[in-house]
Amino acid sequence: MTVAEALRSAVMQLKTAGVSNAANDARRLLAHVMDASSEWLLLHADTRLSHAQQCQYEADIVARTAHRPVSQIIGKRMFWGRQFRVTEDTLDPRPETECLIEIALRKPFSRVLDLGTGTGCILLTLLAENPGASGLGTDLSAAAISVAQFNAAALGLDAQAGFAISDWFDRVEGSFDLIVSNPPYITADEMADLAPEVQNWEPHMALSPGGDGLSAYRRIADRVGDFLAPEGRVVMEIGPAQGAAVTGYFRAAGFTQTTVFPDLDGRDRVVVAAH
Fold it and tell me: Which of 32, 115, 254, 260 is the most exposed place for a label (fewest CB within 10 A)?
């Protein structure tokens, strides 16, 4: 089977399964199998796949027809220009979370705490962009912590980043001048409307706390002051309708400066709180 034939067959299968962006996903998966770029595939459409490549590609397409995310199938995802390992034990790093990175980097910091670190993409990106800083990532999932540790080693950030299995602040000690988090914030009612790629394949614990989706923010606001340095900042991702509620929790906790920032689509996405 040639590259062109493999792609045509895969796109048909993916479209039949109701997968959006079928052509793009087919190319990404084949590029991964052939250890090539999508541009290379276009220039080598008549190249024949080896038997092993064809078997692997067919298995990957079957996985995608079950709506398993491409990042989980190939085991990686780009975030802020760096590659991160992804598994079904972690959230898939999303482009909108890069808004949190951009805002966090606007001011200097030396010690970072990342609550609910998942793949470690937030903490590790911040440390990579600020080589003089160090930080701690916490997560309730031991499997997620293992993924984050792998990513830290792969990026050469072992000396800067530490990780701990912790229920928010329970195993945290010390003071931090930057505390960041992308906590679970999807409401219980919204879970049923998620795409199957999210609902069936990503960890529900990292997606939703149940109820109104705001319990993580309440817990963080209640205790974050005990770990934040005097001139420190809290930078958190939020759902598009949660800005007013989240800033209210931080004001009630004594934070006099709270700001909501939009993402590139103009939706509320990041809350920053400081004393």
Answer: 254
